[in-house]
Every structure is written in structure tokens, then in C-alpha cells.
């Protein structure tokens, strides 16, 4: 797997060589040290967030902007999860263009939902037979997949994009989508068929605001609908007024309208000319997900998903939400005395992730000085040892266990040996002294030149 990175780097080099000189493709993300938590993911570019709360955990479904993209070059979707809104676990890519035998390209903005123990992920892709955008539906038995094509054909196709799925309190499910129009179907209980035909939502200025500039689109509605219900009020949050987009919203007394325009949610910010909303409630707070171009090399085609906490106004309206680098506060703490996946990360500096031979993902492409931050580890009265599951096809290196920052207090150092392969795993342990209270854990990787080792998981003992 390590070689795939080198291959990817080589592909990038070829792409660079062929790129027109006027175009300057973005480099792969390699964020400089920061204590921010936004964007959520630093190891790849992500776009089009679709959060889902399930069994006390937030699952975040995203697209993946390829490194160096100069268009919406997207071949796969990705899944992440968190139970504290700051440390996010990488679940890799359980769905890609090839999952749909009939699809050609464009793994663009989708949304997943759970019904009767199955997870349905609605996504737009180009139908190879027609060359038009169509909506496919994939199904899985758990939120991280693997997902399979539920139908073997599009669920619906009219050349438009960005499906948003919503199950009403009476059990009726709806699928909304559209750019430049806005559509919905009433999904049947199987979630893979619909009744009542394809319905067009009238884009009136009363419903979706007035677009300045007298374009052929009279309303602010552009794309990316996100529909949900709060109390008895239905919300449609959407990307507005291309380009650059901002986020706006409308409300209605029912799932099919009539919609009333309510105003801006997030102004145009963040060096990406698109934006894309996702809204959830989780553990007593409300969260707004979006994307921007905030990572190094970021921009309109190399985007990154971020999140903010917000509070509804007393009358149910949504306040203006601005992009921040801090993101929301941690909900609770992380338990360092249970096995933690190495790919559970608040901030990654220099590393990437890949599929692990032991299941899930591992952290890889570790070079001297790289580090990962795990926020709010609750050490209590103290940790005595640190154990990590590691592999190395080279000579290994060291894991420096530090607190508060990548150069913060050093409380332990584990030596990682060569193990004979990047997926040949062994445990290394070392004594720890001074890790008490709730602290931001930093695992800093040191050693010689080149790639040092991989880390699959870690755990402290009390
Ligand atoms: O990511 C590709 C497209 O860009 C999405 O489908 C739109 O919502 C916009 O974010």
C-alpha cells in the first residue's frame, strides 16, 4: 500500500507536466502546524458534507476532491465519524464510481440515511448510457459500509444533482435534488423506489429569495438542498447565488411547501466558489457543516469540510454562521485507556491514511517531524505506559508522546523497529510519566529519512 502513494505522487507529477502553464494545480494538502480543528480533515481534500447521527455517533459522508483538481474531479465518496465533534475517525471510501456499473464519473454531493437497520446513500453520478447526471442509491448494513448499488440502474434521472433525503415523522420519506431546478419524489418504504412521479418545486422569489443581477435564475436557489424538520417547521437550507455561493434557507409548514425564504445562513466566505450545507442536532447542540478552500493548496476544486456549532434563535430562525478555524468545542473527552484507532485525529500534520490489513484504516506515510493531535484525552490521575500497534518496511523510528502541542511536554518515547513490511504489525510499549488531567495528546513521529513506519492503533494503561 505504501507504494500506491509513490504511484500517486508520480501521477501527480505527470499531471503537472501536462498542465497548461497558466493553470497551477493545487498540491496535495500538507498543513503547517496549527491548533485549529477546522477544516475537519487534513489528510485529503473533502467536499459536500452530509452528516448523519446514528447510535450516539456522528457519521460524516463527504466527496473527495482529487489532489491538483482543476475541475470537480471526484471518483469516490468517504466516511468519517466522531463522538465528540473534534476527533474524527477515518473510515476510508466504502463507495465509489465503480460501485455503480452504469456510472461514468462525477462522485458529487449525496446524503445517507438509516431506515430499518439499513443505510441508504443517494448520490449523483453521470449515467454512462445517457451522459446525463442521474441519482443512484447505494445500500449497506452499517453506516461505514461497504455500500452496494441497490438497483443496478439510476433511481431517477433528469440531468440534475445533489440529492437530499429526509424521512418525516409520519414515516414518509422524500428525496429532493436539483440544479438549476428543484425537485422531489416521495420514496416508498423500501427507499429504492418512489410513487407519485417526479415533482417540481416552484422556484418563486417568495419561496427562495431574489437573485441580484437579473440572471436567468430569478431566485437565490442554486443547488445543494438539505431538508429537515424541527418541531413542526420544515427547513430547506441550500447553496445560493452562484458564484461565489453563500448558504441560505427557506421554511415551510409541510415537506412539500409552500416555502418561504428566510435569509442567509452563511455568507460567501472561505476561498471556494461553491459551498454545501449539512445540519444536525447532536448531544444537545446544533451543528452546521459546510466546505471551503482552507487547506494549503485549497480552492474551488480542492475543498475541505468544516463544522460550526450554532444555536437557533428563539423564533426558530437560523442565525448567521461564520466560518472559523477553531470549530466547535469538544463534547466530552476521549478515553486514552481504551484502544483508539490511529486514524482518530483532531489535526494531522504531514501524514496520510490507507486501508489496514487488520481492518479499518491506518496512519501511514509518516516522515520525520510529522505529528497527529488527539484532542481532550482524559488521563485522570495518570498514565503509566503507552502501547502502539506499528509496522515498518524500513528501519522504523520513534513515537514521541507529547502533551498540549507538537513541541509540548514529552511524557514518553516508544522506539519502533523495522517489522519487515508496511502491513506487518507488532506492538511497541514504553513508560509514560506526567500524563495527567485532560490534555491534547500529540503523537510526534521522529527518525531518519523517508517513510518511517505506520500506526494502526494505540492505548495507554493507567
Ligand atoms: O462537488 C461537486 C458539486 O459542487 C456538488 O454536487 C455541488 O453541490 C457543489 O458543491
From TrEMBL:
Keywords: Carbohydrate metabolism, Glycosidase, Hydrolase, Polysaccharide degradation, Signal, Xylan degradation. Residues 1-26 form the signal peptide. One of its GO terms (biological process) is xylan catabolic process. Residues 338-461 form the CBM6 domain. CDD domains: CBM6_xylanase-like, GH43_Xsa43E-like. InterPro entries: CBM6, Cellulose-bd_IV, Galactose-bd-like_sf, Glyco_hydro_43, Glyco_hydro_beta-prop_sf, Glycosyl_Hydrlase_43_Enz, TAT_signal. It comes from the Bacteria. One of its GO terms (molecular function) is carbohydrate binding. The record marks 162 as: Important for catalytic activity, responsible for pKa modulation of the active site Glu and correct orientation of both the proton donor and substrate. SUPFAM superfamilies: Arabinanase/levansucrase/invertase, Galactose-binding domain-like. Belongs to the glycosyl hydrolase 43 family. This is Carbohydrate-binding protein. The lineage of its organism: Bacteria, Bacillati, Actinomycetota, Actinomycetes, Glycomycetales.
